[in-house]
From TrEMBL:
Name listed for the protein in its UniProt record: Outer membrane protein
Keyword Transmembrane in annotation: no
Entry's Gene Ontology cellular component terms: membrane
Source taxon at top rank: Bacteria
Similarity field: Belongs to the outer membrane porin (Opr) (TC 1.B.25) family.
Pfam families attached to this UniProt entry: OprD (PF03573)
An individual GO BP term: oligosaccharide transport
Species the sequence originates in: Salmonella enterica I
Keywords associated with the record: Signal, Transport
Alphabetical list of PANTHER family matching this protein: CHITOPORIN
Amino acid sequence: MWIISTPSGAKYDFKNDLVLEAAFGQSEGYVDQYFAKASYKFDLGGNPFTTSYQFYGARDKVDDRSVNDIYDGTAWLQALTFGYKVAEVVDLRLEGTWVKADGQQGYFLQRMTPTYASSNGRLDIWWDNRSDFNANGEKAVFFGAMYDLKNWNLPGWAVGASYVYAWDAKPATWQSNPDAYYDKNRTIEESSYSLGCGLYPAGGACQRHHVQTALYRI
């Protein structure tokens, strides 16, 4: 199956550390995608503090319970992010997401094509944790810290850790062919931590991570 995708977007920099972005994409006979982002940077205690609000939306083109009927209404992922850099060596991140993805699929994707890895829409939320945290109804909070080892005569090296806690994850609100594990009344809590070190040579990056994820069915 061939799907024709047509994206377009705009970005405006106010030159005062406020940046606005918006984009729209269409896949013929499949989905429309929406994106909006506002980001702002300012000094806090002499160190840079960054924040952003992000909205990712998707709406399918059919309502016939077919394979392409993936969402009921508009699905979305919203995110709020904060970042703080201390003494040029410590990066702190606090981020949160909230997902609405009612329908057959049961989770939100930013891609405009159905086949896995056939395309990759924009998503600025990236956590070094195994789960995507994008299930219907799911809320997630992420905290991460990274320490640059340049003051220890290890330029390019950094170590860090992160933790995510998420709750209210729900399965699809309906399925055309439900399996034995399908129960739309169940919700999931999940958590994940990541310990990592990375070498960032000129022009690339090489990282090693240990990730542990736990799921709690309630």
